[in-house]
What we know:
Structural class: mainly alpha
Strand content: under 5%
Protein name: Amino acid transporter transmembrane domain-containing protein
Domain Amino acid transporter transmembrane: 43-446
Membrane topology: Multi-pass membrane protein
Shape: globular
Keywords: Amino-acid transport, Auxin signaling pathway, Cell membrane, Membrane, Symport, Transmembrane, Transmembrane helix, Transport
Largest sheet: 2 strands, antiparallel
Distance between the termini: 66 Å
Strand order of the largest sheet: 1-2
Helix content: 55-70%
Family: Belongs to the amino acid/polyamine transporter 2 family. Amino acid/auxin permease (AAAP) (TC 2.A.18.1) subfamily.
Amino acid sequence: MGTNVHNSGEVYNTSDSEKGFAINHTTSPEQDAGLKFVLKSEGSWFHCGYHLTTSIVGPVLLTLPFSFTLLSWGGGVLWLTLAGLVTFYSYNLLSMVLEHHAQLGRRQLRFRDMARDILGHGWDKYYVGPLQFLICFGTVIGGPLVGGKSLKFIYSLYHPDGAMKLYQFIIICGVITLILAQLPSFHSLRHINLLSLILSVTYSIFIMVGSIYIGHSKDAPPRHYSLKGSHVDKLFGIFNGISIIATAYASGIIPEIQATLSPPVKGKMFKGLCLCYSVIAITFFCIAVSGYWAFGNQASGSILANFISETKTLLLPKWFFVITNLFILAQVMAMTSVYLQPTNELFETTFGDPKMGQFSMRNVVPRILSRSLSVAAATTFAAMLPFFADILSLFGAFAFIPLDFILPMVFYNLTFKPSKHTLIFWVNSLIAVVSSVLVVIGGIASIRQIVLDAKTYHLFADM
């Protein structure tokens, strides 16, 4: 038996062929600038937990009370809990597959590596790669948009008749994103993502306290918890609500996050997931339950909109809105930086030279140019399409669900080949099938919502 030492730093004492695993020895980290420079394997499980939290817990959680208006109390709590359990299970399966392949001598550092090695050539380039790019670039578009809306709201508090438009604030956030995009590696975001974790918990508690305060105040709106609309509206609303919650839990970059772990990787991702889901339990349920309790089926697409009365009167002190929006702005900038990393890795792989130093002129110039042009394009789209949230829900149906709910089950079953007589085989198969149905129905519901909202669309709208 031979001894193989791999670039990940892990040592294996049994040859891959003896274990019956056909390894596809393709580009090693030393030959791939993206792996070598962007996906450095230097982090601890704490750092992994920070990255995971920032990739999942974002401003989309402000839409959770609205999802309850489509699902009611029972459906909302049930699906919020079930989606949490399924995604935790799914991400843990994905981690187990990655650990298994690492132990066999092939540490997969990208989602598309997993697709190529497990499903075969073509799946990486023509399916998983494009879906992940769609998710990441879509999130980078959404970052400056959400941040710009927070900045504009703060501006409007002090200058209600001010001349500045939404697209100008989006450009400001685009410049911040442009600066953050130059951070060289995923691992270099660890301190920013720790701050993001703290901010997400803080503003979630702020919003929960605000909802409870308004719910008990004399300005509390009448609360009704019945589903609104016709039978068709209610049916599509249920699937729309399911898609919103599924998207809230989605990541799409689990392998890239696990790639930041220093070897040996065994067990570290599970600890990171436990840290992440502890934060999720606090933030998701605090906002969803308190927001829906306070405003019932009048909960808006963003719960913060309910903190302002129909007469445009603030139901909470001005400082509350300033601090909350600043925290959201900072946290969404961190989240955008996380989703920049897979595209940064792709650019580095394409334009970088792994034989030269990371900070050599040969690599710095194409790095700055490619990342800057990418952020500039995303910011332009965000300014042009301030209704991008509707489009993002469509991305969620067709991209997030396959990567986070379907492929992990397929990867596990193909890698470990559990017997068809075992429970895990049928649980995985059931989740994959149900999720595939949700892709179709959720996509139809998202397209329907885009058509219904189309009358409000126009480029560079000041929404």
